[in-house]
Design brief:
Layout lengths: L1 H24 L11 E4 L4 E9 L6 H8 L9 H11 L13 E7 L1
Length: 108
């Protein structure tokens, strides 16, 4: 009986350590609010995340150009796709689903 108690206690401790490890190693991108300002480390510019419902034939770049008219001259495709991917971790920026809501960067 004492052996079973020790075994159960060991399993509970191991499970607790595993859960704590998982919590520490996961990024906290799901807790961001829609209007939270996000900082992009390399370029030190800020952007807000805006939810937009995608229409047919919309692309990430077409929507970002529409909500950021000042970017037309200095469009950095890799940065835009990277920022989109940070805001939508489970989405493919090259195949958006019409009718779905995605978060797009609105740069300051």
């Amino acid at each position: 009986m004492d052996f079973i108690k020790k075994l159960v206690s060991l399993m509970v401790c191991l499970m607790a350590v595993y859960i704590i490890y998982q919590d520490i190693t996961q990024e906290d991108i799901y807790s961001r609010k829609e209007d939270e300002v996000v900082r992009d480390a390399p370029s030190s510019t800020f952007y807000h995340v805006i939810p937009i419902k995608v229409q047919a034939d919309d692309t990430v770049l077409s929507i970002v150009e529409r909500i950021n008219p000042q970017l037309h001259q200095e469009l950095d495709v890799n940065r835009i796709l990277s920022d989109f991917q940070l805001s939508n971790p489970n989405s493919d920026p090259f195949s958006l689903s019409p009718g779905e809501i995605y978060y797009f960067p609105k740069y300051n």
